[in-house]
Amino acid sequence: MIGFLMRKLFFRNLVSPLTEIELIESGFSIKKPFNTKPKLFNWEEIKSIRFTENYNTITIQKLDEKIVVKNDNIGWYELIQNIPSKFKEFDFKYTVELINSLKPCGICGIIAVRENNCIVCETITWNKKMTKNEIEYIKSKQLDFFSDRIKNGIEIKKIAEPEHGFKANKNWRLYI
């Protein structure tokens, strides 16, 4: 699985872009690879929205079709946080618990670490078993993570910004 930030920053020029979900005023849109136009979904046209059994996808039931949306799509975490309360079958409690359980990532600066792995940059978080020096580990991973931007002369922001439904860590530090 490729992290959200990695997809946006480094794979933007791929021939086959990845699926991206974007919130719009009346619902959301899904832009799949090779489609030129995003498909629009109006909240009024949706009959139900549910998590699947493993909570890694949501099933969206319209009157005439069923759509399955995976959690590795760009914007999925933002979408699940913005499901209207009228969808009583949706597990809002799980969504709140999931988002509140996330920890800050020292590499990308986004609050998206779950089970010692960042959902956004897909880096394993530092622990004492890896290396003794946390700062050196973070610096090394930041160099890896931002290497394409550095190579292409693109400036790296020194503060983290919210990303696709994830909050930014205000205390994040860029070490490179």
Plain-language structure description:
- The protein has 176 residues and is an alpha+beta fold.
- The chain folds into 2 domains: 4-97, PH-domain like (Roll), CATH 2.30.29; 102-176, no CATH class.
- The chain contains 5 helices and 9 strands, in the order H-E-E-E-E-E-E-H-H-E-E-E-H-H.
- The protein has helices at 4-10, 76-80, 92-101, 134-145, 147-151, and strands spanning 20-24, 27-31, 39-42, 46-51, 57-62, 66-70, 103-104, 111-114, 117-118.
- Strands 1-2-3 form a 3-stranded antiparallel beta sheet.
- Strand 1 and strand 2 (27-31) form a beta hairpin.
- The model is unreliable at 6-17 (pLDDT under 50).
Percent helix = 10-25%
Q: Label the CATH architecture of the largest domain.
A: Roll
Instruction: For the largest sheet, list the strands in their spatial order.
Output: 1-2-3
Work out the number of β strands.
9
- What can be said about the biggest beta sheet? 3 strands, antiparallel
Outline the low-pLDDT stretches: 6-17
From the structure provided, what is the oligomeric state, counting identical versus distinct chains? single chain
Helix/strand structural class: alpha+beta
- Large-scale geometry: elongated
CATH first level of the largest domain: Mainly Beta
How widely separated are the two ends?
A: 25 Å
Number of helices: 5
SSE sequence, one letter per element: HEEEEEEHHEEEHH
Overall tally of structural domains = 2
Q: Please report which band the strand proportion falls in: under 5%, 5-15%, 15-25%, 25-35%, 35-45% or over 45%.
A: 15-25%
Write down the CATH topology of the largest domain: PH-domain like
> Averaged pLDDT, please?
86
Taking Cα atoms only, what radius of gyration do you get, to the nearest Å? 18 Å
